[in-house]
Amino acid sequence: MKYNTLFLNPDRFFEDRVEANKLRIWPALVVVLSGIAVGSNNLVVLSKLLTATSPSVSLILVVSTIVNTIISVFTIVFFWFMYSSVLYFVSRWFGGAGGFRDLMRLVGWSFVPTIVGGVCSLLITYQRVGGVDEVSRTAVIDSIRSVPPTMQLVLTTIGVAIVTWQAFLWVFAVKQARGLSPRASVYTISIPFVVSVLWTIRPLL
Predict the structure, then answer these.
(1) Which of 17, 102, 140, 158 is deepest in the core (most CB within 10 A)?
(2) What does the mean pLDDT of the chain come to?
(3) H or E element that contains 74
(4) Cβ pair 50, 58 in contact under 8 A
(5) What is the DSSP string of 144-155?
(6) What 3-state DSSP class applies to 95?
(7) Residue 194 and residue 164: Cα distance in Å, rounded?
(8) How far are the Cα atoms of 53, 136, 144, 145, 154 from residue 151, in angstroms, in the given order?
(9) Confidence of residue 41 (pLDDT cuts 50, 70, 90)
């Protein structure tokens, strides 16, 4: 099975995943990796803070970073279940016939864009934190909290692009898992897509 078809031909990719229904661990692995990618910003901040803190405080920072990363993973898992549930129940209005587990398994693959977004966010955070000349906790924290309007626009644009890519994958996941037409699949994903976009652009509102 060629995994690059997720990028080149997602409809074929999800069709193959429906037929190969034994591979249930990979979508879960994608979700976990996306949670780690989202939480990877904490590692950049941690590496900078460790140079400006005492050993006792450093231990606290390491533990809090690990906890925050675990929380990020569980948060993404929650969204995986939530998106799958919404898509499942909305697709019932259009005559969807597939099972919830099959849909959830395919929706898990739609978090590949989240991994890409996490890496982009990591690079941006590294660029911002790395530019702090004064190595102090206050300087690092201020650098993270103060987001210039242009940078906020860039982050929001990346976020909208990631959400749109994810919604694009939902169309084919719903189509193959629930046996819907392309038009019905687009209607099904429209509600969670609009909500996700609105949530993503909220910093600009």
Answers:
(1) 17
(2) 85
(3) helix 55-92
(4) yes
(5) HH---HHHHHHH
(6) coil
(7) 10
(8) 28, 22, 11, 12, 5
(9) confident
Report yes or no: 31 and 70 within 8 Å, Cβ to Cβ: no
| Rounded CA separation 180/174 (Å) | 7
Question: What percent of the chain lies above the pLDDT cut of 70?
Answer: 84
70-106 in b/e form (b: 16+ CB < 10 A) is: eebbeebbebbeebbebbbebbeebebebeeebbbbb
Tokens of 77: 């898992």
Answer yes or no: are the C-beta atoms of 62 and 143 closer than 8 Å: no
Cβ–Cβ contacts within 10 Å for residue 12, how many?
14
Half-sphere exposure of 63 (CA within 13 A, CB side): 6
pTM for this predicted structure: 0.86
Phi, psi angles (nearest 5°) of residue 176: -80, -40
Distances (CA, A) of 156 to 62, 151, 200: 29, 9, 6
110-145 pLDDT, tens digit each: 999 999 999 988 888 777 766 555 555 555 555 555
Please name the residues in contact with 135: beta carbons below 8 A apart, sequence gap of 6 or more: 48, 51, 52
CA distance 123 to 127: 6
Both structure tokens of 7: 């990028």
What's the rounded Cα separation, in Å, for the pair 76 and 64?
18
143: region left, alpha or beta (phi > 0 left; psi from -120 to 50 alpha) = alpha
